Amino acid sequence: MQEEIDGLELVVAAIATVLIEESMKVSLKLSPGRERGKSWSIDHRQILVGREGLVRTRAKRGPNR
After folding, report:
1. Which DSSP category does 28 fall into?
2. Which comes out higher in pLDDT, residue 54 or 9?
3. In the prediction, which pLDDT does 29 show?
4. How many domains does the chain have?
5. Distances from the Cα of 62 to the Cα of 22, 25, 30, 56, angstroms
6. What pLDDT does 52 receive?
7. Domain boundaries, position 19
């Protein structure tokens, strides 16, 4: 019986923590490291992992879309 109460208290505490954090909008902000960055940095990352760069990718697209 006591173990069930302790388990429920943990669940209630976890839910309350999430609601408090969500109301403060702290957990929903993107950190600067998660932003995509400028076009040249995206281009270099794509080339480093073996993909085509932005210039070539954008050149493939037709002008009439």
Report:
1. T
2. 9
3. 64
4. 2
5. 43, 41, 34, 12
6. 85
7. 1-30
Looking at this protein, which amino acid is placed at residue 26? V
Kindly report, residue by residue over 10-64, the tens digit of the pLDDT. 999 999 988 887 777 655 566 677 677 788 888 888 888 888 888 787 777 666 6
Do 65 and 35 fall into the same domain? yes
- Say if residue 10 is in the same domain as residue 21: yes
What lies within 8 Å, CB to CB, of 21 at 6+ separation is: 27
Taking the C-alpha atoms of residue 64 and residue 27, their distance in angstroms, rounded to an integer, is 41
User: What residues contact 52, with CB distance under 8 A and at least 6 apart?
Assistant: 46
- Do 1 and 18 reside in the same domain of the chain? yes
